[in-house]
Structures are given as structure tokens and as C-alpha cells.
Amino acid sequence: MMASKITPKRSVWFLGAILSALLGLGVAGYAQDESDVDENPKKSKSLPPAVLQPGIVNCANLTYGKRKTSTCFSDEFLKQIGRETHIRTNQRLVPVDLESTELFNYPVAVMTGEGSYSLTPSQQTNMRNYLENGGFIIASAGCSSPDWEKSFRRAVTEVFPEISLQTIDQSHPVFHTVYEIDELKCKGAHTSHLEGLEIDGKIVLIFSPDGLNDTGKVGGNCCCCGGNEIKNARQVNVNLLAYTLTH
User: Fold this and answer.
1) Which DSSP helix (H) or strand (E) runs through 175?
2) Residue 52: which of 112, 113, 103 has the closest Cα?
3) What is the pLDDT of residues 39-53, one digit of tens each?
4) Strands across the sheet with 195-199, in order?
5) Structural domains in the chain (count)
6) Residue 136 belongs to what domain range?
7) pTM
């Protein structure tokens, strides 16, 4: 079961946002303009734009590179954690530019996609500041895209030349906060793993070369036809959100 201890965040900004979410207080912030984000057309017709909601945990859906979006990442884990714990969440991922100061209103952000890309200098700077001051990123290659994985690994090296991604052992708390996860279940006989970036003894970024996207719950044109999607991704994402809020 999820630990009850909540340790101080390195950033006062993040501490206020998380305490507000857990205690029901207000959170200052602004809705992100979605006018230039390549949203899924089928999804955008049926749902109003996702916006930051005060007083609860909000998670960002990153736009990065040259307008590359993370829309093919399911928000179902945000609903799931509400059913399994007392954590109150905005049940939709909110589009946020990686270079924007608005990112600091979100304790967790997701990042996914396919194909090659590069982060701009301002995006690199903001990513570093975000992760060094309490932020947490869940990143996975859409459809196990090797080009996206290569670009992401290069980006992490550029942002953090002094540290590197490390494979996370199955005994780590990220596998045991809400659900006990003994393995990452994939299609066929394929096995997967998680890699993490650690700062001051805390994992601040999780990367999976396979899909944590739970695309079966995204709808529209999103799929993982050519990749090894992790079947229990939703439970993994619930654990990751609980981990960053309680450690």
C-alpha cells in the first residue's frame, strides 16, 4: 500500500502545489492555450480543452521540440489513482510547453512521441530546472520508436551531462507504492524495464523504451501497432505518480 509519509520538495513552488492538492487548498496557475497544439481531431471534437484545476494534482502533457506533442498518452491512470488512493487529481492531462514557466504548476509531466527531434536551448534549460526543483517526467517511446528513443537519450545527455539514466531494480519503491508490480508485461515473449534519472537520492525521471502510453484507452488515431506496449502500464503510471508525491 502507498506510504503515508510526505517529505519536503526541493522547490517551494512544488511544495505549495502538492500540499494544495492533498489538503484541498487553491493552486495559482493559468490554463494552457491549446490553439497551436496538434490535438487528436476525434478527441478534441468530443471533449473541451483540458485546463489546470486548482486544489488537486494536475499532470502536464508536454509539447516539445518543434511542436511535437504527447497526445498519445492515456490519462486513465489519473482516474485509477483516485479509485485506489485518497489522492485527488485532474482526470485529464493538460497540454504544456516544455519551455513554459507554467510547467512548474505540475508536479508530474508525461512525454512521448515517435520519430526524431531535438530540444531547443530554452527547453533544455527548463527541463533541468523543472527536474532539479521537484518535477517528475514519465517518458516513453511511442510504438517503441527507435528514433524517438535515440533523440530522448541524446536530450537527457545534453541536459544532464554529469549523470546518466540507470536501469531500475525491481525492488525499487516505484514498483511497490500502490500496486506490487513484479514484472513489466509486454506483448509476446518480450520483456521490458524502466530506466531512471536520480538527483539527490530521488528518481526524478522515468524512461521506458517501450510504451507506458496505455494507448488502448487514448482513443482516436493513437495506437501501438509497431511497438511493444507494456500491458500493465496503467498500474506502473499510478505507482510513479504516487512515488513522486510521497517521496
Assistant:
1) none
2) 103
3) 343 343 456 789 999
4) 94-97, 59-63, 108-113, 136-141, 202-208, 195-199, 166-167
5) 1
6) 12-246
7) 0.80
